[in-house]
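Subject: design request, 401 residues
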């Protein structure tokens, strides 16, 4: 019998490759075609961006854009599992693109190795129809949100810290709020913790990133059940998750409201009072005379007995500390009365000087300001750069984290 032909909704190659997701109800051939025609921008190629990019590339998104100006470092590898040891020191965006292409060469991957800001965001975003926020700082979250609203692009936003993760879809449908609807004013920068300071477990960002990829696939396939207007809260320690309903779009929102006052990207660093990156800021809260560098402290500890107060949480103190350090956390510096602090340090009336150290030299300055109010007979000075400087300049065997 000769070939009598057939009707195919999808190519043989794609049918073979994507067969398992083609068989899923409410996705099928139409969903796959929509996915292939989608252009998805991933902002941030870190712990969230890695699973988002790898799963979407594997699923057959037609075009993936990756925005990240950073480089792969050794302390990324425990959670940013798309990278290999051989890629340490290389561009994250370019390395992630290479790994996507090695898994699925049919995906068109565009790399944007820039620091996203108000001057370039619109030009980048306008080429995509879905955006994933995989960043770790407040200023960039507002920037991404506002540009998505201005260009009418749905936003899939995830975050993760320590044991916990959150996920939502913003600006997707007439009643769906944007990020600014829920948070019209940014938080105080001093209250914001990122994973550089607070830590995070790899499977937490893996879980949230995978779910971000799933939301993108549902949006691309026009599946009606998404997290638009909802917030998923994931507690990895307890193995629990819950979804709460968010309030509807705010008609008075500055960017998506009925009479918006933001019609173009603004200065988000000024708006948030913090840099648009996830690096730790180097604060300067004290006069130079109230600070010593690590070389000066090395010489001081060699010549006299001194008191050293370590303000880090106990979990960090356990990683490594100088033998003379006494662990009194920054929170304890705030809450404990002066006599308890003196007792913990073993300070007596003959002591005039004490030094304060932390991870990178920020919390130690905050602690000095607190301690000088409680123990004004003692001169407290912080150690510039903290243990990170100590490891880099004094003892290269001291564990960095």
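Subject: RE: design request

Done. Sequence follows.
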């Amino acid at each position: 019998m000769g070939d009598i032909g057939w009707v195919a909704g999808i190519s043989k190659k794609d049918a073979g490759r994507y067969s398992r997701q083609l068989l899923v109800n409410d996705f099928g051939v139409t969903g796959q075609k929509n996915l292939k025609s989608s252009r998805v921008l991933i902002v941030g190629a870190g712990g969230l961006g890695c699973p988002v990019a790898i799963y979407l590339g594997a699923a057959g998104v037609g075009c993936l854009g990756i925005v990240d100006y950073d480089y792969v470092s050794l302390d990324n590898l425990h959670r940013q599992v798309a990278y290999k040891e051989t890629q340490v020191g290389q561009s994250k965006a370019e390395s992630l693109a290479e790994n996507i292409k090695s898994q699925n060469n049919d995906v068109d991957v565009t790399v944007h190795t820039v620091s996203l800001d108000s001057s370039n965001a619109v030009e980048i975003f306008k080429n995509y129809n879905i955006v994933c926020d995989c960043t770790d700082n407040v200023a960039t979250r507002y920037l991404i949100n506002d540009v998505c609203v201005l260009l009418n692009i749905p936003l899939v936003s995830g975050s993760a810290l320590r044991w916990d993760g959150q996920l939502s879809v913003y600006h997707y449908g007439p009643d769906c709020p944007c990020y600014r609807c829920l948070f019209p004013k940014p938080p105080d920068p001093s209250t914001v913790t990122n994973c550089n300071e607070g830590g995070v477990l790899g499977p937490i960002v893996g879980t949230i990133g995978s779910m971000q990829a799933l939301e993108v696939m549902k949006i691309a396939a026009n599946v009606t059940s998404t997290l638009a207007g909802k917030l998923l809260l994931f507690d990895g320690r307890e193995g629990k998750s819950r979804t709460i309903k968010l309030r509807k779009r705010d008609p008075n929102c500055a960017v998506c409201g009925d009479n918006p006052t933001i019609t173009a990207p603004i200065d988000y660093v000024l708006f948030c009072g913090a840099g648009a990156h996830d690096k730790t800021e180097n604060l300067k809260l004290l006069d130079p005379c109230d600070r010593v560098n690590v070389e000066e402290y090395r010489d001081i500890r060699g010549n006299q007995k001194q008191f050293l107060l370590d303000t880090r949480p106990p979990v960090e103190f356990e990683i490594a500390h100088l033998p003379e350090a006494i662990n009194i956390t920054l929170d304890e510096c705030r809450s404990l009365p002066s006599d308890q602090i003196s007792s913990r340090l073993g300070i007596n009336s003959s002591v005039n000087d004490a030094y304060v150290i932390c991870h990178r030299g920020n919390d130690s300055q905050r602690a000095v300001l607190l301690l000088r109010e409680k123990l004004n007979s003692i001169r407290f000075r912080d150690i510039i750069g903290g243990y990170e400087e100590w490891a880099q300049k004094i003892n290269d065997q001291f564990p960095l984290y």
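The first helix runs from residue 12 to 17.
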